[in-house]
Fold each of these.
Amino acid sequence: MNYKHAFHAGNHTEVFKHSVLCLLLAHLRQKPKPFAVLDTHAGAGSYDLLSVESEKTGEARDGIARVIDKDVPAASLFLNLVRHLNPRGLRFYPGSPAIVQSFLGEDDRLIACELREDDAASLRTNFKNDSRTSVHCRDGYEAIGAFIPLVMRRGLVFIDPPFEQPEEFQRIADALNFGIKKWPTGILDLVKLDTGAANPALNRNVVHPLVVNWPSNERQAEIVQRIESIATEAKLLESLYERKLAEITDLKQSILQKAFSGELSLRPSQAVKEAAE
Ligand SMILES: C[S@@+](CC[C@H](N)C(=O)[O-])C[C@H]1O[C@@H](n2cnc3c(N)ncnc32)[C@H](O)[C@@H]1O
């Protein structure tokens, strides 16, 4: 395998895919229930933009360096994370497993797979004190077969391959089909951003055979009806709550009036006792 991610860390496609990753993770965090993430092509975890590899390509200069000080609302979660890592100027860039780690709660889990031994070793070192994470030096597509469905119902499979092997698209299509079938409640995110001779584009032949489990039209209509009836119920509850709140305010007002005009002579505990009798 020729690809080494340190040469490309922080380039413009990275900023885009990591901003989307943050949005997906923020979505998972909205609910208190735990979630799990499988990062199939994890890389080394974090990168030094002053390293020989990064300096050689200079890709980060046209990526993260151009937006780190900008106000980009859709990317704000990600940009804040990078700013937090770099209080004294841009140098360190988080890879996908480090980004996932920053969103994990106590009961959430991350499984990170990386085929290169040197990058897997860096990952292990980075995560050795975090019992919520596990690192595997193994093929990411095989890992989908081995770990899906993940232990939790909710979660994400982040698939971010280097697209070096000619048979890679078939493996991706197989993995997606398997994942969708075995873990319908999970999110599967395939990253394919750049094109070119060395990076063939995703085309109809690849996408067409994917089986996506849309509910039938009848089921969709049922779901919409259910949501509408819950919304009506919620509106009724809201107006009931507002009415009760207004009544309580009136009651409070009249008690205060009575108290000031001397009509309230009993202490509350005495009144309760008498009412019980
Ligand atoms: C685009 S990089 C991943 C970057 C990482 N996901 C991130 O966002 O920071 C692709 C990584 O996949 C690794 N890799 C290549 N083929 C693999 C395979 N079959 N299984 C697991 N990892 C693989 C490469 O060594 C490389 O580190």
Amino acid sequence: MKSFFKKYINIVKSTETILYTGYVTGVKGLMIESRGPRSVIGEICTIKYPNSEKTLLAEVMGLEDNKVKLMPFGDTKGIEVGCEVIATGHELQVPVGKNLLGRVLDATGTPIDGKGPLEVNEYYPALAFPPDPMTKKPIDRRIVTGVRCIDSLLTCGKGQRLGIFAGSGVGKSTLLSTIARNTNADVNVIGLIGERNREVMDFINRDLGEDGMKRSVLIVATSDTSSICRLRAAYVTTAVAEYFRDQGKDVMLMMDNMTRFAHAQREIGLSTGEAPAQRGYPPSVFDMIPKLLERTGTSDKGTITAFYNVLVDGDDMDEPITDKVRGTLDGHIVLSRSLAQQRHYPAIDILQSISRLSRRVCGSQTLKAVTKISRLIALYEENREMIMAGVYQKGSNPEVDLAIDKHQAIEDFVTQEEDARCTIEDTLNKLSALAEIEIPDEEYVENPAVNRKTIAELVKEHKVEDVVNENSSASRFDISKNLNLQ
Ligand SMILES: Nc1ncnc2c1ncn2[C@@H]1O[C@H](COP(=O)(O)OP(=O)(O)OP(=O)(O)O)[C@@H](O)[C@H]1O
Ligand SMILES: [Mg+2]
């Protein structure tokens, strides 16, 4: 009997019986200022429009004596001094459940696809901490993106986080939509932040299509929404992905794009009185980026593989947002404008791109083939001007000769039609034929490197102490040669 009541006693105990309210005292720039209510930073408040049932959601951004600074999730048109402000007692929460699949939400987690309300009874906080690094599962399974160039030369693992970097109009969104359609992840969670209205409809109807949509959740904050919407949409996207990861799923999270997220925080930071630092970005922008990006990846239950698009301002790869995002992630895919101009799609610049974890998810023969092809691409690029000018004499360097012979075949291998889907079997078969290196069947599985020895194990097997003693004057390079480390 006691336990029967316990549930209700707990509900009563946790119920806030006092309604904290305040009233609007002014609207300054993007901010609404109010006197009261008693609230904490990050808390969601509702503001009542005068003579209407309508309310406006706003987040507490600053506190000063009894003055509250609120950032509204909608238009401030119609708000006047004296409007009632009510504290909800909680931060931004996201409705979660299996029913989210196939739905389109806004930055507050409200459906905007006209398919009716969501039927869920669980909520996740939009602002959460990353999973405990000590309990994270290792990344040892390959994810298939369906893009041949990535699946072969820049192989990614389930739970890896990558950035796609390029200037405007080079093909970031198109590459992301190809991955969304073709990946073998269980669920896609896609955040469209600061995109044009037209692009959102194109993404849903043209790029994803009905089948893609069935296993996807979209969170949308277009360029015309308020800066807090664009900012929080990235958090809501991450929270939805976290829910599916907690269900043990392999999730593919895609964010288009992180630069708009940084712009939104810049607008908010500057309007709350922060000083501009690097290129006008206040310090909070650089603090927020890793906090958001570290939430994806593996946990003890499932994985979130993440692709973050970054619009590189003025094609300058050293601009601060690009630099910060690149440094936080486990790999970067750089798209080149000159390749796009030659209609070489996807315009991936292989020599500038890197997947830091590909060694963990590829077999050793596959790695050999990848190394060979990458080297041939590098050699061709190094000698491109001489080859083009007809100055290069065939026979001067057998490796360059091979790079020239294979050039067209490599170009065909790394490019693909926008609507083409490349299976991993086909990709590895083609890679093997191109590199003339046999890839055994056991490397076609999802986790070909899982039984490969770690560096620590190899060192242990070779009794490193003996080798180090023998080579006390040798350099580290010489020692690893003795150990025959690969
Ligand atoms: N794989 C592809 N095949 C054919 N055309 C492509 C491909 N990728 C990109 N394009 C062309 O490039 C144009 C721009 O691509 P996209 O919109 O993906 O670029 P973006 O980098 O996302 O641009 P923005 O920075 O403006 O968002 C497309 O409209 C299309 O014409
Ligand atoms: Mg785009």
Amino acid sequence: MYKDKLLFSQEFQAYIMQEAEKRKKAEELFPSFKNLSSEKVLNLAVDKFRGKLAFASSLGLEDQVITDIIAKNKLDIPIFTLDTGRFFNETYELIEKTEKHYALKISVYFPEPSDIENMVRNFGVNLFYESAEKRKYCCAQRKVKPLRRALSGLSAWICGLRREQSITRSGLEVIEWDEGNNLVKINPLTDWTEEKVKDYITENKVPYNPLHDRGFISIGCACCTRAVKPGEHPRSGRWWWEAPEQKECGLHIVNGRLERIIKS
Ligand code: SF4
């Protein structure tokens, strides 16, 4: 018994050391990603993480820009998306349109059916309106768990996050260690403004979700997204019944510490 515990402890220690080494090696690359254009960031990402890299697209405007850059530069970066099962029909149409437009494939990951069945049986179909905890639980089942599956075996993933998108993203770096998922996260559009994103979409005729033309800015699940009035914060259409500092789904908490980002 004691021997088993000792072995387990040694294995655990070895695992911790291995992970620390992995992180240290990754962080040594970070300076080379500074002050580069988005295109160069993506090229460098392929160079450094070839075969162990993927782009997580939520089909938003920023993600469509990244898809455009990947397709035009023929970058070896697989694209995946997480289908929560509660999307707008326009989002499904956009998946199809994007695949046809660029002649590429977007891998779709779904939640585990048993996770959703258990959640709905216990808390109902619209549990997310009842409390922040239940909303985060739903996001965990429908997004975070499938994301873990999509990221398994990778060394780095790419996201379309921008600093000005929300209070929780103000400390965002172009490349950072994603402690929650234990790999590198690359954000090639960190410094882009909303205007720059829209201009790129128009100038390059990038396919996008028509809901954006009807006041929807950040588009997620249909039940948790609403149109935003002029002058309202872009993220105010997501989980509008919650306080701003609660508005993350567990996919993008930098260094696992939401509090630190809010204060910065
Ligand atoms: S956005 Fe809403 S429906 Fe979608 S996973 Fe999160 S809580 Fe569930």
Amino acid sequence: MLPKTTKSVFVTLVILFLLTPSVVAPGGAIQSTPVKITIDAGHGGYDPGSIVSGLSEKKVNLQIALKVKELGEDHPALDFVLTRTSDNFVPLLDRLGYAEEHGNDGYLSVQANSFSDPRVNGVETILDRTRKQGGASWDMAKLIQESVVGRTDARDRGIRYQRLYTRYTEIPSAMVEVGFLTSPSERERLASSTYRESIARGIIQGLLIYFSR
Ligand SMILES: [Zn+2]
């Protein structure tokens, strides 16, 4: 682990680097090709995900995705597209199809967790079982996980593997589970726009570092 100050200096340098146009064409015209990343707000429409004490997962996911899009406007190196911008259901493979067409440098699905034990809390990032440790998806997931935990101070549950629909795409892809709706304290945090903004900033930071490598 780097000391926190070294780490934040590094992150600042990375961000400055990304804000600097990479190619200046002859004649001085600036060319920049932003990376195109798909942010997927999990669930939607008739599929709410879990609902705990009136807070639905689909809503939390969407609010975070919209925040990433909004804050992402400040980072010309990144171009975010969303699989949904309102409360509608999009079939999973359509989400990937959309990503292949409009945002195929990276795919991140935003989800919120739930569990039978209300004491369980924290952030985890999930990869499909076919993704190798040390591969592109794993790298991206690890940086997002670290950055979201760094910004929120949530419990770090690390990287986990599951069988996910993202196995159907070659795009570096992961699923971030931003917290447990079943944990009363975490649910309260997830209901706050300030906290959701910290999550969104963490996601952007992780992606900035990943795409600067
Ligand atoms: Zn979910």
